[in-house]
Amino acid sequence: MPRLALALILSVFGFLPGHASAQATAPTAVYDGEVNHYRVRIDAQARRAEVDADLWLGGDLLSMFNVMPVPGLPNGQADLIEQLQVRDAQGRLLPSEDLGAGDFKLQGGRRIKAHYFVRLDHDRYAWPAGMEEVSYHTDEGLMVTGATLFLADGGDSMQGPITVEMKLPEGWLAQTPWMHDGASNRFQVFSRRELLSNALFLGTADAETFDVGGVKLTLVLGKRYVPSKALFLDLLRTQLASYQELFGGRPLERRYLIIINNGASGDGGAFAASFSQFINGDADARNRVIWGYVMAHELLHFWNGLSFAPADTREEWFKEGATDYLTIATLARNGLIDETLLFKRLENVPRRYLIARMAQGLNMSVRDAGKDKQPNRQLVYGGGSLAAMALDVELRVRSHDRVGLPDLMKRLYADYPLPDKRYKLEDIARIARQLTGEDFQPFLANAVESTGYFDILPTYKDLGLRMDSFVEEMFISREPGTTAEQKARFDAIFAPAR
Ligand SMILES: [Zn+2]
Q1: What's the 461 CA to ligand 1 centre distance in angstroms?
Q2: 5-12 vs 316-333: helix crossing angle, rounded to 10
Q3: What is the CA(358)–ligand 1 centre distance, in A?
Q4: Cβ atoms 102, 77 nearer than 8 A
Q5: Residue 304 C-alpha to ligand 1 middle, in angstroms?
Q6: Which of 21, 85, 159, 369 is deepest in the core (most CB within 10 A)?
Q7: Which of 330, 317, 455, 337 lies closest to 388, judged by CA?
Q8: How far apart, in whole angstroms, are the C-alpha atoms of residue 191 and residue 373?
């Protein structure tokens, strides 16, 4: 069950620091036109990172973003910063005040030189979204996200180009989604978001770059997974091709990094141009139903969530739910799951929703569940994918199978490009109306704004399927008396393309 979690929430919702309200004084000085440069030195044991940052600080906040408090670290990742010293361009020490939650207040509107250490102990703590979204060690190196290492301008954006230079232990290489800047461990980074919302791997792990449909994909594999490389590549190529067709274009980014290592959770997290995935044990064709699903889900976020995104957390259901549902549909169409596994997936969707509503007692609407995504994940993902599937089928039924969810996704992708635009529920309803000539507001209100129990049986019926259930036991089968329209609709969504 992939969870995109805070990594994406923060990248999508603009990386607000903990104390955005603390930005009191407006910058009076004019940006000096120089490069923002970070130099990172990782010690031989990879226990400590030493960072020198030469930055233009527009406002009064120097911030570590994406911090999450965990037991033992009330200020989250920021509590692993040591010996922070900030100087002005002339080398004079600037006093800074620790506001907590990763924010340091100091006199900005000038160039600063920050020096600090980050203790690389992140894998000793229990992160709400998992350490695969923060940092962890393997015997081949270190996975670390940009937000875990870099303090940056805590204001609305960072002015000027950004370069990063890594000094690594002997024999290590930096694998990043950034552009190389001449030397092997030097990079150009195009925005603060690219700097912070990405997973990096520093070390000796196998890394290979592939050109897949105009996207440069670098696959970093822990050694246990090198024998499975062809299996991963097959899935990545196949799914990437389906998504390009589904959304009608390439994703926002042109370079992607995928990092795979062994981890019990089997979970993953997507960032601006990278994702970090754990697989529990070896990866083979048989357990592809698990790891392939996580991989395909995170890959789909390169469009839904990272090329276009909702205005706020109320549409988390759509970002996660449509991603989950379309992951299932495309895996089936590509023959990566057979009908038996497809039906199991289609049984799991309403089961997650039932668990959320009945066992967890989550009685808010599916939209409202997005506000607190991790605790409410069964409702966000389960209720969200149920709603996305019902929306797809409803679009098809009302348009006499002329349009479906892929047409709506194409419009969102074309009309709401990040970083300039973001969509709302009204936009989904409006596009659905434009596509079908029908009012979808009542449908959406019932599916995601209601606190009642959404009935999915009519959706399955319209697909020529029936679901027999007893509490949490769900059994999907083909309805013998299905009509030709229902059969064709099922085939259009799920049948392997021949
Ligand atoms: Zn996700």
Answers
A1: 27
A2: 120
A3: 23
A4: yes
A5: 9
A6: 369
A7: 317
A8: 26
- What is the pairing mode between strands 465-470 and 135-138? unpaired
Local structure of 22: helix, strand or coil? helix
Task: Quote the Cα angle for 75-80-81, to 5°.
Answer: 100
Q: Distance between CA atoms of 229 and 89, rounded to whole angstroms?
A: 48
Q: Nearest-CA neighbor of 474 among 338, 368, 408, 382? A: 382
Q: How far from 379 is each of 328, 363, 423, 445, 457, CA to CA, in Å?
A: 18, 9, 21, 16, 18
Neighbours of ion ligand 1 (CB under 5 A): 4, 320
Distance CA 355, CA 376 (A): 11
Prediction pTM value: 0.87
Tell me, what's the pLDDT at 472? 87
**Spatial separation of the C-alpha atoms in residues 200 and 142, rounded to whole Å:** 8
Q: How far is the CA of 320 from the centre of ligand 1 (A)?
A: 5
Ligand 1 centre distance from Cα of residue 297 (Å): 6
- Is 265:292 a contact under the CB 8 Å cutoff? no
Tell me which DSSP letter residue 124 carries: G
Please, are residues 299 and 386 in contact by the beta-carbon 8 Å criterion? no
CA of 193 to the centre of ligand 1 (A): 18
Distance of alpha carbon 11 from alpha carbon 269, whole angstroms: 12
- The H or E element that residue 468 is part of is strand 465-470
Calculate how far, in angstroms, residue 301's C-alpha sits from the geometric centre of ligand 1. Answer: 7
What length does the chain have? Answer: 498
Could you tell me the distance, in angstroms and rounded to a whole number, from the CA of residue 323 to the centre of ligand 1? 7
CA distance 148 to 139: 20
Ligand 1 centroid to Cα of residue 328, in Å, is: 13
Tell me, what's the pLDDT at 401? Answer: 98
Report the DSSP pairing between strands 255-262 and 215-221: parallel
Interacting residues of 87 by C-beta distance below 8 A, sequence separation 6+:
93, 94, 112, 113, 114, 115
Residue 308 pairs with which residues in a beta bridge?
A: 304
Cα dihedral sign for 25, 28, 29, 35?
positive
Token output for 431: 């596009």
**Which stretches of the chain score pLDDT less than 70?**
1-28, 498
The answer to whether residues 464 and 479 touch, using CB atoms and an 8 Å cutoff, is: yes
Range 452-456, long-range pairs (CB < 8 A, 24+ positions):
453/357, 454/353, 454/366, 454/383, 454/386, 454/387, 454/390, 456/349, 456/350, 456/353, 456/386, 456/389, 456/390
